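ugh ok fine here u go
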Amino acid sequence: MSTETVEVDQDNIVDQSIIAVVEEPAPAAVATPQADPTPEPPKAPKEDPKIAAIEDLAEAVDPRTIRRDQRVAGLPDSGYENFDRTYTQRRLSSFPRLEFIRVVSKSINDIVSSDDTSMAQFAADLNEGLGLESAEVLVRLFSRLAMNAPETIAEVLMISLGVPNHEKAIVADIWSQPEGDEKGRGGLSDTDMEEMLETFIDQNAGAINDFFRKTLPGLLSRTQNLINANQK
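structure:
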């Protein structure tokens, strides 16, 4: 039996132990943007300029903040030349408001009790006015009082100005004087009276609403019943 010798090419032998398995590199990971853990605060809504203007106006006309100064000074050689006061109109508090109601109620009672046609028309106008806003009724009331009871207007203005009782007669006399050369000296000017009435209405229209809705209708009704009873 013959033995065949096989030559092995040593250069072609590959040591399996050193074969490195080369794997295809994995694709690079794409970074995913992470949400900011701190959320953004909600954006404040844009301020509506119209609403802001309305709010500013409402604050501006708050009756508690309305003020008006009025000077009262006597004319030279009038006996009141040394009297010089400045009063401030403010919204009526409880007791001055009751005084206002007393003064106006008495004046209205006198007017509607009169047989004068214009007085009866005044009462009718007030009755029609009860369906209006209180400020409108006040305007109507003051217009009629100015024609039929001007002394009541003076009393109302002094209540509004907070004139002390011991100075009211002096103020009334000074307002009856001719107008002076200086503002507030001498008689009350038309402009000052109109501005004071407007300020009074702005300050108190809401506060005395009950007077027109409750007190006044009852007063007119009672007065009319008395008139009817006396005519029988």
